[in-house]
Amino acid sequence: MGQVLSVVSQKGGVGKTTTAVNLAAAFARRGQRTLLVDVDPQGAVRYGAGLRRGHATRGFFDYITGQSGLREIILPTQLPWLRVLLVGTVTEAANHAGYQSLVADTDMLRDVLTEARSRCDVVIVDTPPGLGAIVRRALEASQHALVTLQCEPLALQTTPQILRAIQDIAATNGELTLDGILLTMYEASNPACVRVAEYVRKHLPADMVLDIVVPRSAAAADAFAAGQPVVLRTPADPAAQAYVNLATLLAERFQ
Ligand SMILES: Nc1ncnc2c1ncn2[C@@H]1O[C@H](COP(=O)(O)OP(=O)(O)O)[C@@H](O)[C@H]1O
Ligand SMILES: [Mg+2]
Known about the structure:
eight-stranded mixed beta sheet; binds magnesium ion; binds adenosine-5'-diphosphate; Rossmann fold
């Protein structure tokens, strides 16, 4: 059985999708059969994962509403070991409430992730921000959680909520481990950013904040804009290397 890792955060815009996409690509480059699953109705994975031109836009939502079979919506990428399950056409819908309640009130997400784990080594789940039903459902069916935290002043106020939620879910899902908090968009030249990082390390348990830090880099933002993981587009970039190192660390833990 493969391992399911959900990338979560209390806030939006803190590097979740960038982390999910690049970790997935880094695992696949290691030769591990990897599936990247998007359950965020915003559907940003579609723009960053390096999908082939003209790919299908249907995905998880279309499967759970009975409009698509799983096989036709698992998309290939430029990496032989990386496949992607987009969130699907819910992205174009004005109202996401139906999607929310379908995920909240059924076991379909668990079923899809369980099926995925039986066929893959690693399943990475990109989630919407916050602690809504979709994120809880994803964590209930995960073995691993990674929390992304951007080094800005509000970071420490919002982090305890997500940590508590992971703890709550781990009380019923005995398989769930918090792999750590990943500092993202880190700027060593920005004193406020350095201060927040130091504060976070001081106030959270020592082994909770990962030593690996993802620096803010122009290449990471450019890669996303160009629709590709930075680990493939600019592998020598420091943010790309951070993601490769993180995949190496996690792969050791997953064994
Ligand atoms: N290491 C980084 N360096 C520069 N820009 C980044 C980095 N990580 C993320 N970004 C940019 O920050 C924005 C938010 O990132 P994203 O991964 O979409 O966050 P989330 O999924 O949490 O909303 C995007 O425009 C993305 O390109
Ligand atoms: Mg996102």
